[in-house]
Amino acid sequence: MKAGLGTAAFGTTTSPADAFKVLNAYVAMGGRIIDTANNYAFWAGSGGESERTIGEWLKTVDRNSVDIHTKIGAFPLDGQDFSKSEGLSRQAIDTAIAASLTRLGTDYIDVLYAHVDDLNTPLEETWTVLTEYVRKGVVKKLGISNYTLARLSDLCVLIERQELTPISYAQYRYTVIPPKDDADFGEQVCLTDDIKSLLQQANPDIILVAYSPLLEGAFEHRGKLPAEYDTTANERYVLELRAESDMTLLSPSALVLRKIANEGILPLCMTSKVSRLKENFSLVKQLK
């Protein structure tokens, strides 16, 4: 299936019992990529709940049947916001990986992301340490999320010059409509054509991942576009999408996920209900 399961709410606003149902349904539909982070979901709990819930679920399945994607570097040390995050220094990475492995109940991570850029730590230090974990087999592949074009460019040069582990996955905010030019998403960075081009030049086999593709239900018939996306052109697009939905008897969200997947980008979708999961993934599960 060309879509990943987002699990940010698992263990907090989505109960472990409901999370297990969604996870089982996703795997039964042919899904494999389970996306989480060590700081999920500090805004609804204390952080680590998602990994812990997935870890309990992993005890009930074949560990090798799924790919666990997790992220480090953005766990708030004060439990409040990203202004005081754990960062990506050698010590921070060692501590974060050990904690994630414990919560997940596994001895390896399929894909480990640098969740947000750490401007206080040299890129060389961060990527050298991450490469060491790949060479030890603790981490299979590396990814980045929310890196700006400038820093990403520096990182790609560093990786090539020092023959470090390449970036295999890149996760950015992305959907089928563009945000306003002045939209501010805080730590989140939107995927742009320049970022996409740079990543694909650095690694032609890279997998681009889109988070928040459904804008929390904004495409549905009763949804409303967030202020950051509220433009005349986007409103027109959504109306056309809903008309297509009415004609095909498919949900607008399912159409959005298929459109993104058809671009060669892997969309992440999060839900607490099996019925919604099946509806949203009804089209992408058919893509090979």
From TrEMBL:
Residues 4-284 form the NADP-dependent oxidoreductase domain. Coiled coil: none annotated. Signal peptide: none annotated. Pfam families: Aldo_ket_red. It comes from the Bacteria. GO terms for cellular component: cytosol. SUPFAM superfamilies: NAD(P)-linked oxidoreductase. InterPro entries: AKR_Detox_Biosynth (IPR050523), NAD(P)_OxRdtase_dom_sf (IPR036812), NADP_OxRdtase_dom (IPR023210). This is NADP-dependent oxidoreductase domain-containing protein. It comes from Enterovibrio norvegicus FF-454.
